[in-house]
Write a structure and sequence with these properties.
- It comes from Streptomyces rectiviolaceus.
- This is Transposase Helix-turn-helix domain-containing protein.
- Pfam families: HTH_Tnp_4.
- It is a single chain.
- This protein is mostly helical and 110 residues long.
- The chain has one domain.
- It has five helices and no strands.
- Helix 3 packs across helix 5 and helix 4 crosses helix 5.
- It is globular.
Length: 110
């Protein structure tokens, strides 16, 4: 489909991710390692992993609705919702599990 936002066009990456194309490629590589692109039962994704990651970041940075965002990427609004529900938690920051030796953790501000 022509006229849609795609990660294969590097000019779309910076406005939605604040990453360089190289940094975005590293992010997509990490997503692939975490199993975000694993083959599952059911219908396959209509967008490649790069475009799905760009869709999620565009959703977070622009606050567009699914109805507004979906045509920009050439998918249905329900597909955009499924993509965000699937990839969003993988892209979210994880709580730090280990701290450096000698670090004091203050739980309560008092």
């Amino acid at each position: 489909m022509t006229g849609v936002i795609t990660a294969s066009e590097p000019s779309w990456i910076a406005p939605f991710t604040v990453l360089s194309p190289r940094g975005f490629d590293k992010l997509v590589t990490v997503l692939g390692r975490k199993g975000a692109d694993a083959v599952r039962k059911g219908r396959p994704w209509g967008l490649p992993l790069e475009d799905r990651a760009l869709l999620v970041t565009a959703y977070w940075r622009t606050n567009l609705t699914m109805r507004q965002l979906a045509p920009l990427f050439g998918v249905s609004k329900s597909a955009a919702d499924r993509i965000i529900d699937h990839l969003g938690p993988t892209l979210a920051l994880q709580q730090r599990k280990r701290f450096a030796k000698g670090t004091v953790l203050i739980v309560d501000g008092t």
